[in-house]
Design brief:
Shape: elongated
Structural class: alpha/beta
Number of strands: 20
Strand order of the largest sheet: 8-13-12-11-9-10
Distance between the termini: 58 Å
Number of helices: 18
C-alpha cells in the first residue's frame, strides 16, 4: 500500500507547508479547506479544495465543510474488504490515506480574560474531531496526525517506503483519541462551570505532561508530573526554575505543601517543610526576621528541607539561607544580589512563583484503588471560624496572635496534629499520630522549655482531657481547637484548673 491522498486542515499551521510540500513531492494528492488551503497554495503546493471532493460548498460560515460521506467513506473504508471497495467504486469515492488535522483553539480562546460565552462556543470544533476519530478508528489503513511534532517521522517513512508502518499508525491513533478526549474534557469542564453544576453525574479531567521524573516516591517507582490546563492558582507546574537540579517527585509534593501553608499569610512569612509536614514557620516585619524564626523553630529538621517565602528574597536572607543544605527555595522573586549568593550552590533549586495566586474555588483530587475522591480544598481559616471562649479566662492580645498562627499552621499538619506557637513562630509540631495526646507529647518534647508561655493548636477536638493535662503541665497558656466532643466539659474544667484559656472554632481541620 502507499499513501496517495492526504486531507490537511489545521488551525495550528506550524511547519505545515514544509510537510505538505514533502508529501506532494512524493506524488501525494493534497486535499484542504479554508485557511489551510490558502496557506498551502501561497507556498506553491497544488491543492484540491474540499468542495471538489464533496461536490458541496462550505456552508454556515465554515461550520459544515468536511461532514460529508465522500470524506468519511474515504476514511472509514477497509482497504481489503471487497464489499467496501465495491461501494466506493460504485459511488465514485476515492479513499483518503492520510489525515492531518488539529482543532479549533478552544482552550486558548477561553484562556482570554475577556472571552464571551458566544466566542467560546464558536471555537468548539465539530468536523475536526469527527475526521480524527474516523481516521483513528481505521488506523490499520489510514495514517492520522494531530501533533506537528510527528510530521518529520511520518514524512520520513513516506519518503522511504511510500507509507507508514502499522506500529506508527497505531501509536498516532492512540494519540488522537487522547487528544480528542482531552479536548472534550476541557469543553465539558467549561460548560459545567458555566451552568453552575457542582456535582455532575460523571467527571472527566485532563492533564498535560510537564515532566517525566527520574523516579517516584522511591527509586523503584516510575513517575510523571502532569499539569492542569488553564489553572489560574499558584502551582509548581507554572513555577520558573532559576537554578538547580530537575525537580523530583518528593520535591514537588513537599514544595506543594509548603506553598499551601505560606499562602495563609499576609505578613512576611517563611515556611520550612519536610515530608509534606511543616517543621518550622515564622513571621516577622522582614523576610530575614521571618526566616530566622522559621529556622530556629526546628534547626535540625529544616536540614534538607523545602523553604517557601511569600516576599522577595533579598541578599541578607540569601546569606542565611545558604548556610544550610536545602533542596528548594521558593519565592515570588529574588534580588540580583540574592541570586548571586544562592546560585553558587549549583544543585539548590530556586523556584520563582507568585505564591498568592488562588482561584475562588479549588478542588482536590485523591486517587484510591479503582476510584477517585474529589473535595473542595480546606480554605477555612480563622476569619470563617465560629469563635467562642468557653473557659473562665479570655486570651490576651499576645495569645490571640499566637493562636491565629497555630490555627493557620495546624490545618496543614497530618492528623492527628498538634502545633505549639510562641513569638511569631512554631516551636513544636506533632504530626500524624494515632492519638491526640501522642501528637501533643511530641510537640511539647520538641518545644522543651519554650513550651512555657506558648499556645497550642489542635486540628480536631479533644476526646478527653488528657491533652489539656499535658498542655497544662508543659506551661501552655492558651489552646485553640474545634470543640464538639461529648466530653468538652472535661477539657474546659481541666483548662480552668491550669488557668488556660481555650478557644473553640467550630471547624475541624483533619488532613489525611
Amino acid at each position: 500500500m502507499a499513501i496517495k491522498r492526504a486531507l490537511i486542515s489545521v488551525s495550528d499551521k506550524t511547519d505545515i507547508t514544509a510537510f505538505a510540500k514533502g508529501l506532494a513531492d512524493k506524488g501525494v494528492e493534497v486535499i484542504s479547506t479554508g485557511g489551510t488551503k490558502r496557506a498551502l497554495e501561497e507556498a506553491g503546493v497544488d491543492v484540491i479544495g474540499i468542495s471538489d471532493v464533496t461536490g458541496f460548498p462550505e456552508i454556515l460560515d465554515g461550520r459544515v465543510k468536511t461532514l460529508h460521506p465522500n470524506v468519511h467513506s474515504g476514511l472509514l473504508a477497509v482497504r481489503d474488504n471487497e464489499a467496501h471497495q465495491k461501494q466506493l467504486d460504485d459511488l465514485n469515492i476515492k479513499p483518503i490515506d492520510l489525515v492531518v488535522v488539529n482543532l479549533y483553539p478552544f482552550q486558548e480562546t477561553i484562556a482570554k480574560p475577556d472571552v464571551t460565552y458566544e466566542e467560546a462556543i464558536e471555537n468548539i470544533d465539530i468536523g475536526g474531531p469527527t475526521m480524527l476519530r474516523s481516521a483513528a478508528k481505521n488506523h490499520r489503513d489510514v495514517t492520522v496526525v494531530v501533533d506537528p511534532s510527528d510530521y518529520n517521522r511520518v514524512l520520513r517513512q513516506v519518503e522511504e517506503n511510500g507509507d507508514t508502518t502499522g506500529i506508527l499508525r497505531r501509536e498516532l491513533a492512540a494519540k488522537v483519541f487522547r487528544h480528542t478526549a482531552s479536548y472534550d474534557a476541557v469543553i465539558s469542564e467549561y460548560l459545567t462551570a458555566q451552568s453552575g453544576e457542582e456535582e455532575p453525574e460523571s467527571l472527566t479531567v485532563t492533564f498535560e505532561r510537564k515532566q517525566t521524573l527520574r523516579y517516584g516516591e522511591n527509586p523503584h517507582q516510575k513517575a510523571v508530573f502532569y499539569k492542569k490546563p488553564l489553572y489560574t492558582g499558584a502551582s509548581l507546574a507554572s513555577a520558573e526554575q532559576l537554578n538547580g537540579k530537575e525537580l523530583s517527585y518528593n520535591n514537588i509534593n513537599d514544595a506543594n505543601a509548603a506553598l499551601n501553608i505560606v499562602k495563609e499569610f499576609d505578613q512576611p512569612a517563611v515556611v520550612a517543610v519536610k515530608h509534606m509536614n511543616p517543621c518550622g514557620v515564622g513571621t516577622g516585619e522582614t523576610v530575614v526576621e521571618a526566616y530566622q524564626k522559621a529556622y530556629e523553630a526546628d534547626s535540625t529538621s529544616i536540614f534538607g528541607g523545602i523553604v517557601a517565602i511569600n516576599r522577595e528574597v533579598d541578599e541578607a536572607t540569601a546569606l542565611k539561607l545558604k548556610e544550610i543544605f536545602l533542596e528548594i527555595i521558593m519565592a515570588p522573586s529574588f534580588t540580583e544580589e540574592a541570586l548571586a549568593v544562592l546560585t553558587k550552590k549549583k544543585n539548590l533549586r530556586l523556584l520563582k512563583l507568585d505564591v498568592s495566586a488562588s482561584p475562588a474555588i479549588e478542588h482536590q483530587l485523591t486517587s484510591v484503588n479503582g476510584g477517585l475522591l474529589l473535595q473542595e480544598r480546606d480554605r477555612y481559616g480563622f476569619d470563617e471560624a465560629d469563635i467562642s471562649v468557653p473557659t473562665d479566662r479570655e486570651p490576651t492580645e499576645e495569645e490571640w496572635e499566637a493562636l491565629k498562627l497555630a490555627w493557620k499552621v495546624v490545618k496543614h499538619v497530618k492528623s492527628n496534629a498538634i502545633v505549639l506557637t510562641k513569638n511569631d513562630q512554631t516551636i513544636g509540631i506533632g504530626a500524624g499520630q494515632m492519638n491526640r495526646v501522642g501528637a501533643a507529647n511530641i510537640a511539647i518534647e520538641q518545644a522543651g522549655e519554650k513550651s512555657k508561655g506558648s499556645v497550642m493548636g489542635s486540628d480536631a477536638f479533644f476526646p478527653m482531657d488528657d491533652t489539656v493535662e499535658a498542655a497544662g503541665r508543659a506551661g501552655v497558656t492558651a489552646i485553640i481547637q474545634p470543640g464538639g466532643s461529648i466530653r468538652d466539659e472535661d477539657s474546659i474544667k481541666k483548662a480552668n484548673e491550669y488557668g488556660i484559656t481555650m478557644v473553640f472554632t467550630g471547624i475541624r481541620h483533619f488532613k489525611h
